């Protein structure tokens, strides 16, 4: 009998004890309502009645998969990027949106297409800082409502079609030949 009581007490203690790690916050739900945001440390909950959902706070690196994008000057390119973000409001990141990571991935892909599509190919290749800032601004505006801050966005890879690569190579060669002719200068008769 005593052994059964001790066993039940240990089971209740195990069910009511949670550890929130240093890099997390815990959002405590009681009967489906948020009642508190718990800081790191040992936390006790009421079994069955309470649920503690842990939210990771460190900066997360999210690759934005390659997107087929048509630039303003009608060139088709494949561009991939990477976004860095972190949760700044644990409660909103749990309550405001069902899956914050999936939502950021989707909004980042559509924003990448939208922002790059407003630029010409030359601008996309030369002004990546402007494009990165534009993507980050749009993402930050949306994700702050979800309790998430986008800290950095960077275009990672721009893949040009083969025909465009060949055309650019021909243009570069023509410019080198033109510079070579100008460098030698005109012939002088003696």
Give a verbal description of the structure.
- This protein is of the alpha+beta class and 190 residues long.
- It folds into two domains: 2-56, no CATH class; 60-164, Tetrahydropterin Synthase, Chain A.
- It is built from six helices and eight strands, in the order αβββββββααααβα.
- Strands 3-2-5 form a three-stranded antiparallel sheet. It has a three-stranded antiparallel sheet with strand order 6-7-8. Strands 1-4 form a two-stranded antiparallel sheet.
- A hairpin with a 2-residue loop joins strand 2 and strand 3.
- Helix 3 runs antiparallel to helix 5 (128-143).
- The longest helix has 23 residues, at 162-184.
- The model has no long low-confidence stretch (mean pLDDT 88).
- Residues 15-172 form the Band domain.
- Belongs to the band 7/mec-2 family.
- One of its GO terms (molecular function) is peptidase activity.
- Keywords: Hydrolase, Protease.
- InterPro entries: Band-7_stomatin-like, Band_7, Band_7/SPFH_dom_sf, Stomatin_HflK_fam.
Q: Summarize this, please?
A:
This protein is of the alpha+beta class. It has helices at 2-16, 90-95, 100-117, 121-126, 128-143, 162-184; strands at residues 17-20, 24-30, 33-38, 41-44, 50-56, 60-70, 76-87, 148-159.
